[in-house]
Amino acid sequence: MKKFFKYILVSLLPAYLIASLVFYASAHDEQKCSRIEITLLDSTDTHFTSVQEIKKQIKDEGIDPTGKPLGSINTEKMEKILKKNQLIARAECYKSPSGIIRIDIEQRVPIMRIISGFESYYIDENGDIMPTTSSFTAYLPLATGYITHSYAKSQLYPMAVYLKNNPFWDAQIEQIYVTENNEIELIPRIGDNLILLGKIDNFEQKLENLQCLYEQALSKVGWNKYDTINLKYNNQVICSKRDK
């Protein structure tokens, strides 16, 4: 008899667990969203957007979940709409057991600012065009001159990545000027001279040659001894002395 009841109990246990889960899921779906909580995961480094601006976007897009049953809230749709914001790289929305919709936001990361004609924008870490915002300006190398979107993405982006990953040049290069002939001129932060890089091809080797000059010569004779430093020709560094 005991074995019989034990068998019945074991047989009913899975059904009980399934029923409990269904009941919990149903109750959770009927629970109303009490509020949203937004976290900017990179807010200490980047300030292109804010919690208040994201809340405004949610209201303006008509996707505010507050007061709605959790079961009726489409978090994937919320993520897609939030990622329409050109300052946002990633948005993750999820429901908590307590009825809160939590939203984690990662902002896009710019690595170079471009000013060409009447246009001002960034190139981000993925090589895509990123808009500027009046609320925050990133301290980055600035590229000016005759720059198309195509040139910025295909030619300046690799240089921006190189500068970002090279502490010496990240600290040294203040401005990049692109001439009408697509030649590069660099303005350093230290030293009152103009660096003529020429065509952007093989810029890594040219900058390595210049770094050797900085370390072996300019540090001894002075950063301002030369007016221009010409790197246009392979494996050559031609320095023009400043007029006295």
Beta fraction = 25-35%
* Number of helical stretches of at least 4 residues: 6
Q: Gap between N and C termini, in Å? A: 112 Å
Structural class from helices and strands?
alpha/beta
Task: List SSEs in N-to-C order.
Answer: HEHHEEEEEEHHEEEHEE
Give the tally of structural domains: 2
Low-confidence stretches: 19-28
CATH architecture of the largest domain: 3-Layer(aba) Sandwich
Strand tally is 12
- Name the CATH class of the largest domain: Alpha Beta
Largest sheet: 9 strands, mixed
> For the record, what is the CATH homologous superfamily label of the largest domain?
Cell division protein FtsQ/DivIB
Protein name: Cell division protein FtsQ
Signal peptide: 1-27
Keywords: Cell cycle, Cell division, Signal
Concise summary:
The protein is of the alpha/beta class and 244 residues long.
What's the SSE blueprint?
Layout: H1 2-30, E1 35-40, H2 51-60, H3 75-82, E2 88-95, E3 100-107, E4 110-116, E5 119-124, E6 129-131, E7 142-145, H4 149-165, H5 167-172, E8 173-178, E9 184-188, E10 194-198, H6 203-221, E11 226-230, E12 238-241
Parallel strand pairs: 1-3, 4-7, 7-8, 10-11
Antiparallel strand pairs: 2-3, 4-5, 5-6, 8-9, 9-10, 11-12
Organism: Coprobacter fastidiosus NSB1 = JCM 33896
Protein name: Cell division protein FtsQ
Signal peptide: 1-27
Characterise the protein shown here:
The protein has 244 residues and is of the alpha/beta class. It has 2 domains: 31-107, Roll (Ubiquitin-like (UB roll)); 110-241, Cell division protein FtsQ/DivIB (Rossmann fold). It has helices at residues 2-30, 51-60, 75-82, 149-165, 167-172, 203-221, and strands at residues 35-40, 88-95, 100-107, 110-116, 119-124, 129-131, 142-145, 173-178, 184-188, 194-198, 226-230, 238-241. The strands form 2 sheets. Strands 6-5-4-7-8-9-10-11-12 form a 9-stranded mixed β-sheet. β9 and β10 (194-198) form a beta hairpin. The radius of gyration is 29 Å and the shape is elongated. Residues 19-28 have low confidence and may be disordered.
